[in-house]
Each structure stands twice: as structure tokens, then as C-alpha cells.
Amino acid sequence: MARAALPIFFSLPFPTVTGITIYSINLARALARLGHDARILLTESDTLLATYRERTLEIPADVAVERLPVARLDGWGAHWGALIHFLNRRAPCVYVPNSDYRHSVVSPALDPGVVVVGVAHADEPLHYDHVARLGRYWNAVVCVSAEVAARVRERHPELAARVRLIRNGIEVPAAYPEGRPADGPLRLVYHGAFKQQQKRVLDFPALLRHVRDAGVDAHLTLIGSGPDEEALRERGRELVAEGALAIEKPLPNDALRAHLARFHAYVLNSEFEGMPQALLEAMAQGCVPVVTDVSSGTREVVREGENGHLVGVGDFAAFAERLGGLHGDRERLGRMSRRAHETMGSLGLRLEDMARAYHDLFAELRAEVAAGGFARAPGPIAAPPVVVGGLSVFPTPLRARHAHHGRFPSWGDVGDFEWERMPERGALVERQRAHPLLIAVRDLGASYLSELAVDLASILRAEGYDTRLACLRRSPAHGLVPPPGVPAAVACPREDLGWAGAAARMLRLVAAHGRCTYVALDRATACLAPRLGPGVRSVVLLNKHDVPWAAAGGLREHADGFVFTSPVADALAFPDGPSTLSSVAVIPFPLPAVPEPARAEDGTLEVFAYYGHLDGALAGVEVARASLAALAASGARARVTLAVPGDGRAWGEAVLAGLPPALPARPAVVFGRRDLRPHLEAAHVVMVPVPLADISLLILEALVRGCVPVGVRSPGLMESLSDDLAADLPPEGDHATLAGQVAVLAASPERLRERARAARRIGLEYCPDLSDVRDRWIRLLGRVWAAREDGNDRRRPGGVFPPYPELRRATGNGGPVRIFRAGSFSHWHEWLEFQTAGGAPYRVARALARWARAGVDRVGGLGRGAAG
Fold this sequence. Notes:
Blueprint: E1 7-12, H1 19-33, E2 37-42, E3 64-67, H2 76-89, E4 93-96, E5 114-120, H3 125-134, E6 140-143, H4 146-155, E7 163-165, E8 186-193, H5 204-213, E9 218-225, H6 229-235, H7 237-242, E10 245-248, H8 253-260, E11 265-268, H9 277-284, E12 288-292, H10 298-301, E13 309-311, H11 316-328, H12 330-346, H13 351-370, E14 387-388, E15 391-392, E16 400-402, E17 406-408, H14 411-420, H15 425-433, E18 436-441, H16 448-462, E19 466-473, E20 488-492, H17 499-511, E21 516-520, H18 523-526, E22 536-542, H19 547-552, E23 561-564, H20 567-573, E24 584-586, E25 605-609, H21 621-633, E26 638-644, H22 649-656, E27 665-669, H23 673-682, E28 685-687, H24 697-704, E29 708-710, H25 735-747, H26 749-766, H27 770-789, E30 818-819, E31 824-825, H28 828-837, H29 841-854
Parallel strand pairs: 1-2, 1-4, 2-3, 4-5, 5-6, 6-7, 8-9, 8-11, 9-10, 11-12, 12-13, 18-19, 18-21, 19-20, 21-22, 22-23, 23-24, 25-26, 25-28, 26-27, 28-29
Antiparallel strand pairs: 14-15, 16-17, 30-31
Helix pairs in contact: 1-13, 2-14, 5-11, 15-27, 16-27, 17-28, 21-22, 21-25, 24-26
């Protein structure tokens, strides 16, 4: 293969302002000049898995960029599977994982044709841990300084033969940059990441103050961005006002080089380094380095008193002394400036030197692979560490352990991982589209599940699926309308038939469609899955509070696929793994973005009080009354709208009865999302005095509308809220503290507006839209069909069971439960109704006669299979 055809991928999670980003951009550009197809691969540029609140470093137009082909909603399983598929499909190629710690875990699973070159970029625990975990799967370990190389060889003698020293290189102007002012203030510069960890950027204001107090007329410019930018600006506020400090946004590399030529000295206060890219860039432009004396990198470049100065970490007095000497002796400053520029060429720190070294290394490694000199031992995903050296790397719990693939956050992630690596996925989806897709729901009432049914039917039909709505019952008057072009059938329009009769008719409706896919979105339709015929693929959606009910009825053994609305529910349902790994997905509800509503500003806080009924539970009257009474006692100027479910008017009246007049409160009946939205658009705050079972849809609806949540106890969601929104939660039942938090917002309009902006920003980042949900449903449906076609179908036929939460499989709990071949029923008449509505009155009569002859009474229980 020609050299120019060899793809080289430098992996970056996100183009933040770091030396590794600059290194990747510069090296990709230089290798392209040598004929290589070198690219930046962004793995976390648009995802809900990681949040970057830093400025983006602009990647020059002449540097090729690719993004990992994953959707915003995809989890880690999809990311890891997509990266393996992406690299293996392009082999032979080179993969440079850099410090992309959350994706480099795929190294053991890559084909031999993928040459993996790991880089230890710094003399610190995170990079040494990277080498320790994955070095044996890398074709080579590049170290950017002699110190780092020595430490890697010392710690891992088994890797010594594969360790290479290649120092970073930068663009060096052929001629010394002229034009610096010979007199005036000493112009200092730092450019790079604004972070306290390693770079100690928050020390710069104090350092500059110390230097100026020592009589040095020094002006400092900080160029960059990072997680501590806001704190840096706060600490440097007075110096900025004096004109001694400037904090500037990051510049493209070409513009930065010209800008650096205006400064006299470069300052660096790092605790550790590798081969600091920013230091080299500054020295190439003639900036004299005054930097901390750390063991790696700076000692190899900076020669004390000749081309710069080395001082102790945090030694402000030494900084002031060295900078004062440069300020007072401009002739010496000029000599050191020229030597700093010359150092880049004499030490081989030019970009072309680095590019040529990598060019030779890649050629050597490819030849070694071809000759069989290095064979990567295959292995599972190498689980990333939670924390290394006090830094968070991967705090997500790895709940699912697969025997061959490794550890994942959920079983849905395992399924996504397998799907991403599956060949011929497009053909599989096409075969599935040829058969009806029934989206089943109890009715089209104004509920979240009904809206999901309508949304799914619409978006999947637009993708070519033969989607149809199948309703167990007739929709109420306030219900939803099926989308245009989507057939909708009602299995049991009769009101006189109970659940059992409706269930039998629904089974007949599904059977009439022959070979099809049945997607059950609620308990009333999910409980029929065990009774479906062998030609029907069944997929069941479960929230967290549905999981105990599904386990009691044995549903996990009888469906082809499961959709969970959160990883919490996934882990709860399958602590030891599902029977068919490829049939599980975590897909939250879609929440399309909405315009920010205009709220009334009359000095009164509008509070929407919610007690959980849309999340599967409704608080007791006393709990609701106590929380509202505490709000009245807090003295907050507020109006309360009490969320009341459609069948809970008596509950709402009981809560409001006896409340003090100091708290204007009114009930609001909320059937579903349509009824909920106007209240959230009018409210400033949604108060939730009760814990919620799962990721609360109501809280998400509130966030996207800029409605501030107070008292949120919603698993999986609290971790996504910023520190300002996720205030310390009072102990459950501490209504006074909760009311006090609301009162603080009522008394501070500015704080309320800040938190409302934060709420909307987080909501828009977190909430998946319809396209995200569509893609994940298509993937899940495809996996279900793939399992059936591969003969992997382990679904066991069984009987229906009631959609009642009180169902217990163990006898003696919750009353007598009749178990027959047809299923489980709470009463005899339900079994009779089920059989009759299913078209078997003759068999019913024969069974009753046989039981009478056997002396079976109506109270005694029957074992499984006792009835014919």
C-alpha cells in the first residue's frame, strides 16, 4: 500500500485548549506534508456522556477532522463499538489515542492491522496509569521527554524495547522575530489551559502582584481557556482594572505565533510537565522562559541563565528576582531571547524534526507487523479507572460484566457494542421494514406513554416502517389523535368487558398481523408478551417502577427485547444479565426543544408543586399538606399551583383544605404532558417534596422551559445538574428547609434569573430529541430481529398475567392468584372472560365441568397446568 494511503488518527475527546490538542494539530499537518493521510478524530464532540464548558480551540481548515460516527444520545457501549468498527474498517491504519482515556480502552479489541501508538505526554500519574493499563496492547509507547521515557522503562521493563523518545516539535521561524519593544514594561505571557491542576493558573494573580510589589513594571497577558477560567477572572479582577493583567480568549495557532513575538518573557508555574508545547512555541518566538524547575521537559530545554530561568514551584520571590533582572538589563534580555529561539533548532525541536521521527516510527511498526514481530494479544474492553491521581476519569458505574466483551455501564451498552460491530446492519433493517410494526398502548389518553406511542409511530413510519397503533381500549375524550397516515386499531371498544376480555381481543388483533413486531409501552400491553405467537417479535418498555412488577410476573423470560428509560432500571431488571444480551436498550423519552417562555414579573413567585403521580406514585395528603404549610410559614411571596392527577380530585381538595390564606393555592388537573406544559411555562419554580422513582420527565420538561427545580430526588438526573441547581437536599420530610430554599429564590430575582438560565441550558443539553430516540429504537429493533435470525431467540412462551402492581408469584402474598396455562388471573371470572373473549366458549364449558367433577372449589388454588 502506498504511504499516502495510510490513515493516521489522532484521537481527541474534544478540541479544548491544551498542549495535546496543539500537538495533534501540528503533527497531523506536518505528516500531511510528508504524504500521510493524517486526521484528528473527535470522540466526544457532541454527546450527553461528557460536558465541556470550555472554549473550543479552532482547528485550522487545512487539518482534516473526523468525528466518531455516534449519535448524541449514544452510550459508552455504542462509542466503544463504533470506534472499533471505525478503526478496523480502515486498517491498515495508525491510531494515536493521546489522552483520550475513555476511548483508548478499545485497544485490546483492535485488529492487528491497526497500529496503536500510545503517547505518554506528561510526567504524572494519569499518563503512567495509561501506559500501565494499555501499554501491552500498543505497538509502541512514545515518551515526549527523556525523564518520562526513563520512568516508563523503569516501571515497565517488559515494554522497554517498544519505548521511543520523540520530543514535541513546533513551527520555528527561520529568522529571529524582531520588533520587540526595547524599553517600557516587561511584557509577560502565558498561553494554554486555564486549570489549577498541573498549571496552577489561579496563582498567577498573586504571582504578578508579588512581582509588581518588588518594583518590577510587569504586565501579564493570559491567553487560553479552561475549567478554572471564571475563578481566574475573579481573582485577577483588581489587576485587570489596574491595566496590569489581561485575560484573552484562545487564538488559532498561526495567529498565536505572531502574537507571541510581542512579549519579552514566558512564565509557567506548573507542578509537572512532559514537554510543554506552549513553552516551545514561546521560545521559538524569542520569549525568554521563566518557568518552574520540574524534572521533565523544562530541564531538557531551559538552561539556567543562558536561554531562560528555572525557579521553584510557587516561589514567587524567585520569580520576582529573575524577572526583575530581565527588566533591568534589556541587553541581557535580548541575548537570552535570541538563544531561546536558537535552542529549538539545536535540540531538534522543530515541527519537521518531530514529523520525520513519527514518519520513521510508523514505517518501522508497519514492517514489524508484516514480519510478525508484534502480535497484539486480544482482550476485552479495558475498563477505565474511576479516578487517577485525584482526577476523575470515568465515574460512571460499570454495572454489567460480559464474559467476552468486558465491563459496561449497562446491559443496554453491551447490546449497543455488539450492534456497532455487526456487519450488514442495513440489510437487516430493510428486512424488518417489510413486516408490520405494532406500537401497543392501553389507549391514547393524554399521558407520556401515549405521546411516545404517537411520536414513535410517526417518526418510524417516516423511516419506512409499516407502523400501526394498537390500542387496548378506546381513547378518552381528552385523548390524542393518531398521526396522519398511521393506521390505529382498538382491540376492545366494548366498555362492559374487563381487563381479561380486552387482553384476549388484543392477542387476536396481534395474531391477525402474522409475522410482525409488537412494541408494548405500558403494563396493560406488556403483560401479553408471553402469550404472543412464535412469528411475533416482542419489545417491552419498562420504567424503574415497572421492574418489580415485571419480575413478579416473569416477564423477563418471555420478551425478545426490553427498553429501559434509564440505566438504573436496566441494572435493577438484570443484575446478572439478560437471557439475550442483544435485546436490551436504554432509551429515554424524547423531549423536543421549546422556545423559552416569557413569565410574568409581578414580584410574586409562581410555584408548581408536584407530588409524583406522573412518575408512578402520589404522596399522601399529610405529606402534601405539610410541605405547603411550611411554604406558607416561610413568608415567601408565592402563588402555588398544586398538580392533581385526573382521578385525584378528592386528594387535591383534601390537601388544600385548611391551608392558611397567606399561601394562595389552586389545584391544576394534570393528565399528561399536554396539560403539564402551560403550568411549567407560567411557573418560576417546580417544587418536588417527594423522591421520584426514575429520571423524572416532569423535571426535564421544567428544565427545558427554564423552570427551576427545587428538592429534586430523581436518580440519574441529579448528577447532570450544575452545583447551583443541585443544592444540598434536605432530609426527606424536612419541609421547612425545602420551603426556605423556595423563599430564597422568591426574595432574590437576580438569583432566580441566573438559575433559570442554568436550568434551561442543562435541559437543552440533556434532553434527547426525536431524532436521537428514533435512531436508538431502530437499533434496538434491528438487534431483536438479528437475534431471531441467528437462532438466538430464547423467548419462552407463557401465559398472560394481570397488569396489577399487587401481583405476587410467591403464594401467600397479596391474596390468591390463579395460575393456568393461559396465564395468571386474580379471579375466576377473569379467566372465564379471557377464554370467552378469545373465542373458546366450548373449551371453557368443558373445563368447568371437569373441575366440578374433580371437586375444585372457587377458593382453592390451582397449580400451573392444572386446567386444560
